[in-house]
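Annotated sample (chain length 151).
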Amino acid sequence: MKVSELKKDPGLHPRKRVGRGESSGRGKTSGRGHKGQRSRSSGTLPVFFEGGQMPLIRRLPKKKGFRPPRSFSFQIVNLYAIQQTFSPSQPLGPQEFQQARLIRSTAQPVKILGQGALQRAFHLRAHAFSQSAVEKIHAAGGKVEVLPWRK
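Output written by the structure step:
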């Protein structure tokens, strides 16, 4: 291989040199048009600039409301989900609900709601129960155990 046989890489192109006289085809204004901010050497605009129109970030509403630092929300489990998922062999608590993917985490309190019906007796452990859930669990012959938790 000789130096005279070397060829340029077909993927690379040299940078276009603008502003090199009228006969170059890119002289005088060098493709920037006439006057205006973008024709100047320091005429760069922010990406989010919308030509003087009210920017999107200012058109959108401000976030409203306040959530106290000690606020919480229950993770909900309904009776029909317990009926479909479990057999009444042992007490069911937050750990079992998490393993069955009925709740996301055991760090938040769990509340059992009374949607659905129970045909079997379950021993349920949770941080809170709705009144209808307690009535349906007792009617099926089950037990309710309220776990301690901090608000």
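Annotation: The beta strands are 75-78, 110-113, 123-126, 128-129, 143-146.
Annotation: Helices lie at 56-59, 79-85, 94-99, 131-139.
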